[in-house]
Amino acid sequence: MNPQIKKVTYYIENHLADELDVLVLSKISGYSHYHFCRIFKLNIGESVMSYTTRLRLQRASGEVRRGKKSMIEIALDAGYKTPTGFLKAFKKQFGTTPTAYKSSQKFLHNHYKELKMENIEVVERDEVYVVFTREMGDYDTSSKIAWTRLSTELNALGERFQEKPAKIEMNLDIEKGETIGICHDDPQVTDTANTRYDAALSWGKDEIDELANYDFETKSIAGGQYAKTFYKGSYKKAEEAWYGLYAWIEESAYEFRDEPAFEKYLNAHLTEDESEIETEIYVPIK
């Protein structure tokens, strides 16, 4: 994907609650507004407004399912001035009304609510800084592509440091950071082609800032309270852990924060045996 357009998609993701003006987005991209919209659609496959609307509606679907906000509140949060406009857009996106959608999700929620999730805890995390790369598609495939790409780019750093020495001492031992997978979308809601996965590695802020000088994409992952659970085995077991954790949060007094959830891989770099892989899941709460 065009790096300038990718920068715009990241901005949109982080400002869904704000008014998003095409002129502002075109300035972020570095393209003239006369050409920006066409270049965006060429790269993303949909217009900038369609992309923004889809992300807002996907976020709203979670609020509809949880049922803790009124339809007016959800509509306003999604950028609609009236519930009627929101209802029409929701039905166009998901093929059903919010009420019917909420009912269809009850079975899934009730199923996972019955699970005895014994390894859930609430933890406090500091903000962390990461290098990352993004891939689109089903999580199983996209995660493998993303991790292969990021590993290849990091393995090439030795040669790049010889050509352009780092300004600080770089200690990029994988054991000193975190190996993180950011799953932005619920596969039950988002089309496979539009599902976003970020492969990310955290180190100190100074190291991450320095890696940005070598054309790595960087960002931070918010600190604060997280609900955390753990599972061991292949990533095919992830569904039970993810939905079990979400059901637990919905039944608790906690609320979801508007930040992405993520997985932390504890030993994936040490073993190729899927049955031995250990993974923690973190969902931001308040």
Automatic annotation (TrEMBL):
Annotated HTH araC/xylS-type domain residues: 6-104
The entry's keywords: DNA-binding, Transcription, Transcription regulation
Coiled-coil regions listed in the entry: none
Protein name: HTH araC/xylS-type domain-containing protein
Source organism per UniProt: uncultured Sulfurovum sp
This protein's record includes keyword Thylakoid: no
GO molecular function: DNA-binding transcription factor activity; sequence-specific DNA binding
